[in-house]
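Our preliminary data section would be incomplete without showing what the modeling component actually yields. Below, a chain of 400 amino acids is followed by its predicted structure, encoded as tokens that our downstream tools consume directly.
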Amino acid sequence: MAQKRSKIMAFYFLIMLFWMALYAYMPILSTHSAGLGADSVMVGTIISSYGFTQMLLRIPLGILSDKIGRRKPFVILGAFLTALSSLGLGLANTPVLLMLFRGLAGAAAATWVTYTVLFSSYFKPEESPQAMTFANAFNNGGQIIAMLLGGFLAGKIGNQAAFFLACTFGAGAIILSFLIAENRPQGGTRLTVKALLSVGLDKNLLFVSLLAIFYQVVSQGTTMGFIPTFATEIGATKTQLGTITSVTVAGSVLTSLIASKFLIARFGTRRLVIIGQIIATTASMLLPWVAGNVWILFAMQFVVGLGGGLNYPVLMGLAIKNIQSEKRGAAMGFFQSIYALGMFIGPLITGWLTKIAAAGGLSTLESLQVGLTVVSAIGIPALILSILFLDKIPGNQKKG
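Predicted structure:
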């Protein structure tokens, strides 16, 4: 029992450093991109490149890790790429270079599929939803610390400081990635093409992945995309940009922890996902119109995070809940690759909508209000689908 706890604790710190390296500079990425000459569409492209590479790589990485029966080499690779991409972003002096190195960060994030499968191997199959919500809490905890520090250093020293801070976190992740334990299976599992298709075409996995796409479209198009630009328009400093993104994640951490310990067992996953979608979608749509100052924006983003913490982590656990252990790497790869489509198109949609609105004569602030509201409304179809079909997943029926 003590050995298992030590394995889990080591993984917790690795998860934190991994995501700290990917998110320390997020509070200033959109404004930094604009400062290098990027228009709203190019800013959206830079942010979406992170999702594009994940969309391409996550399925192959999941399949490959299943075939060789190992996760740790991919965990090490991911840690290395976080450091390299952060360094490149800090040195980049054109929007195109920013796009390329943020895409490399997406390649690093694509290895998260192996992180999640290796972490879930420390738990019994029926514990996977709770395990993933708890892992997600540490993931988000690292993001909070990193974005607060990144925004603070960017305000005091300059934007490059946030990128180099991320590189430092990545270096720490590299060291720790060599020290974690791997639960080795009984040899590599050579999945046939038919078996892989059965995983990728599993209707429950596809449905949960579809819901995750909607979530990522809204999240990446707003909080991790153009909310920092909106905040700048209403007077936020660079330090406050770090706080704005961090309070969103803080809300997610809070509800993730409560969900993993109490709410899933009490209410069931269906109710939690629906409640989370209602909270996050409503707050996201109202935010551009009611957040007239930074303090209201803080509060609204915290509410958005509360909703997200009841939604996305639970969906991640559901993605592999009914999948055989030897196929979980492929299943998580399919899930994360499919939802990366949302990460890719979310910032692009917001960027294009903002540009179109500006071309129609609206001010920068008004254009952002239009873009943020429309992309937030994409959460409505996800809510409807959840209400109608989420209880059809085996073991996920309504409670009460």
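The chain has 16 helices and no strands. The radius of gyration is 20 Å. Preliminary results of this kind motivate Aim 1 of the renewal.
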